[in-house]
């Protein structure tokens, strides 16, 4: 049996406490001081209490009603995690999880409670460099640049090595759902040295018994869970609509399948899907494992040309900015003149042009899902759902940076009468069903 970090730290915090916040805020015309009631409800808590806000600080002066509500929520979160050696916070994208981390650092430095030798006071870890780059930007934006001298940054790939050669009073795990088993030995040592961890994520692991679920529960147990829909209702984020486009598999034999040997053959989307579904139905007699067969069927669905044709048609209906999420680099290049992916040396320049409105179309692959915010983005189109709530939430989160009174629309493409329906249902399970609608795609643009 694994020894938990909570046991190593000899903490007294309750295990498995999962707090959901409902924020009932002051009238829009009133500047908040003591006028916001927060109800915190979780298994075994039954908490219901009001609280006094922390004094408005220079880092985030209260301005618009949305900013005031956001500060109120951040104040409460900071109060909840205060004095916890191990804590995790799940907040919807756009609420300000990076600023929560920075304000926590400022609080610790101001309290003079950090003692003992350390390489630097704080270590921030994140899955990608793009996410890490957002921390200095936020620090300068909110008058916290002085913290940067006390912070070291590392990607998750280098986290274990960084912890092995340095010592830090507090570790901030941005997108903590990205933890892996390989990180555990170094995390256990960090905790055993009486150092702290704050995990931050917009999408807490849904499966408690998964690798990510176990690691998050052990090293940064979720004390706060504040969802996208709660943030929309509270006026912190703009509203959204999810439109699922139901596509029919094409019977036209125009789908070219290529092999590593260089040989090719042509089939149709419908024939290809039926082929892999039949092999899966007879998996017990198949030479390939069932998981391999499922993966091959998924790859076939992801590469069918019908979604590409329909995505291009759908994008052409808009004159404003449209962000296109594709499955791979080749699809991105086919969908737009300007792309963002790892093999495009102009990716950052293209993103900058898209941000400023110089270009109206940007096609990207997965890495744009995390850590990047695009102003005035109202329309997004997603090629494939992956059956993953986290991926869907991250992509939809790119479109939740408008004014609270505005509405963004996310279009999700789905092959009907296939396993794609199940994946879409899984991906959207955490979203308000009243905001989801379904439309039938015109066969004219599918090549059927």
Which percent range describes the beta-strand content?
15-25%
How would you write the strand order of the largest sheet? 14-15-13-16-17-10-18
From the spread of the alpha carbons, the general shape counts as: globular
Largest β sheet strand count, sense and barrel closure? 7 strands, parallel
Average pLDDT works out at 81
Q: Helix segment count?
A: 15
CATH topology of the largest domain: Rossmann fold
Low-confidence stretches: 1-58
Gyration radius, rounded:
24 Å
- According to DSSP, the number of beta strands is 18
CATH class of the largest domain: Alpha Beta
Keywords:
Rossmann fold; seven-stranded parallel sheet; 15 helices; 21% strand; single chain; 448 residues; alpha/beta; 3 domains
What does this structure look like?
It is globular, with a radius of gyration of 24 Å. The protein is built from 15 helices and 18 strands. Helix 9 packs antiparallel against helix 10 (290-303). The relative contact order is 0.12. The protein has helices spanning 5-9, 65-81, 97-111, 129-141, 159-165, 184-192, 211-219, 228-233, 269-281, 290-303, 305-315, 329-335, 347-356, 389-397, 420-427; strands at residues 20-24, 37-41, 49-50, 86-91, 120-126, 151-155, 168-174, 196-201, 222-226, 239-247, 255-258, 264-267, 322-325, 339-340, 361-364, 379-382, 407-415, 436-440. The chain folds into three domains: 5-233, P-loop containing nucleotide triphosphate hydrolases (Rossmann fold, 3-Layer(aba) Sandwich); 239-248 and 307-445, P-loop containing nucleotide triphosphate hydrolases (Rossmann fold, 3-Layer(aba) Sandwich); 255-302, no CATH class. By secondary structure, the protein is of the alpha/beta class. It has a seven-stranded parallel beta sheet with strand order 14-15-13-16-17-10-18, with helices on both faces. A six-stranded parallel beta sheet has the order 6-5-7-8-4-9, with helices on both faces. Strands 1-2-3 form a three-stranded antiparallel beta sheet, with no helix packed on it. The protein is 34% helix and 21% strand.
